[in-house]
Amino acid sequence: MNEAVPETGVPTCYRHPGRETHVRCTRCDRYICPDCMQEASVGFQCPECVREGNRGMRQAQAPFGGQAVTTAWATRTLIAVNVLIFFLEYGLGDPTRVAGDFGLWPPAVADGEYHRLITSAFLHYGPAHLALNMWALYAVGEALEGWLGRTRFLALYFLSALGGSVLCYLASAVTSNTAGASGAVFGLFGAIFVVARRMNMNIRPIAAVIVLNLVFTFVWGGISWQGHIGGLVTGALVAAAFVYAPQARRTAVQVGTSVLVVLIFLVLIVLRTTALTTI
Predict the structure, then answer these.
(1) CB 272 within 8 A of CB 264
(2) 75 with 137: CB under 8 angstroms?
(3) d(CA 208, CA 214)
């Protein structure tokens, strides 16, 4: 499509009529000024043609489905949220009261405060507790987010957090009040082991880290082994479904597995609630 040439005989930019130019867009053949020129493989294109071309390009895919990510924004956002909640917990209120209101205390959950199964995963008992969990989340999360894509990574994280909370609810003493992102982090440990094995990577260092953390879990007092084991098992199983799903039905298997895991958790929560409320 050609633009009409003004009476002066000098063509002007179709986007800036007052600017004279002799350069045409290589796609639409309209005149464009230097401010509108965007370099292409051959010549220059106008902004509209560049946008149209980008819409037609297929987005890069992560190895196991979903759009590839170049920056692990989900991991960084989770870290930021945990840090922000920590400062709110310790800077603006009474940490003991906050943990009492939002930590995983089984009798309160049984009384209908089911939000504690998730909110407890964003609370921490002190700076060291937060720092260790956030360092592990950063170290493992960025790689996993790149391999799984943002949506699948977030699903893995929250299912792992919920898996840790559910086992705490099932097996912890009724006097306990559990908090921390450790369940989710252990889920990422289990997941990166499974994903690395699927990608034929060296899994020995990952296995060593998992074993070391499990030893620490059972030797050091005051640590919820239920949250760690629940998260680890959930993360490994969900990751296995994500990375071993047949490519032709990958999304269906991944979504179906996630829904099935949630349904299993709901059944376990109901059973535990019934047991606690009938004592």
Answers:
(1) no
(2) yes
(3) 10
